[in-house]
């Protein structure tokens, strides 16, 4: 009986973890957009905003990750974005993956699901020949010191 209760509890925890908006790995489209299009920068729990550094690597996340307490918790966090599918100017697939760590600065109103906005320099670092990257992977990580 105890084994059944433990197994049931573990199964329920796994189900809750898989349905959580804080799952570990996400796949979404990345669009290049300037910070001037964000309504406001997010505020951390202490009430401060995350400073934007010109030319820095930043991310604007879907409103589903930036609403209410979840937005406060995610403000200033870092995400690691990996683009495994890089196409060169000639249209050839380049096999080397490109990864960049970004700081979350706010919400992007045009983002849906697991998509995000970032700057043009970041799109280029990720190997994007245009202003758009289709289906890059990203996850929350500890910010570099």
UniProtKB/TrEMBL annotation:
<protein>
    <submittedName>
        <fullName>Uncharacterized protein</fullName>
    </submittedName>
</protein>
<keyword id="KW-0732">Signal</keyword>
<feature type="signal peptide">
    <location>
        <begin position="1"/>
        <end position="16"/>
    </location>
</feature>
<dbReference type="InterPro" id="IPR036908">
    <property type="entry name" value="RlpA-like_sf"/>
</dbReference>
């Amino acid at each position: 009986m105890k084994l059944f209760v433990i197994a049931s509890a573990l199964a329920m925890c796994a189900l809750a973890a898989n349905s959580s908006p804080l799952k570990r790995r996400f796949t979404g489209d990345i669009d290049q957009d300037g910070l001037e299009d964000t309504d406001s920068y997010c505020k951390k729990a202490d009430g401060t905003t995350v400073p934007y550094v010109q030319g820095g690597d930043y991310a604007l996340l879907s409103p589903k990750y930036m609403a209410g307490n979840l937005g406060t918790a995610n403000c200033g966090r870092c995400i690691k974005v990996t683009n495994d599918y890089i196409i060169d100017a000639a249209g050839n697939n380049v096999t080397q993956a490109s990864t960049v760590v970004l700081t979350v600065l706010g919400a992007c109103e045009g983002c849906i699901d697991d998509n995000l906005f970032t700057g043009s320099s970041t799109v280029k670092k990720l190997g994007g020949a245009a202003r758009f990257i289709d289906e890059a992977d990203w996850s929350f990580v500890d910010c570099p010191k």
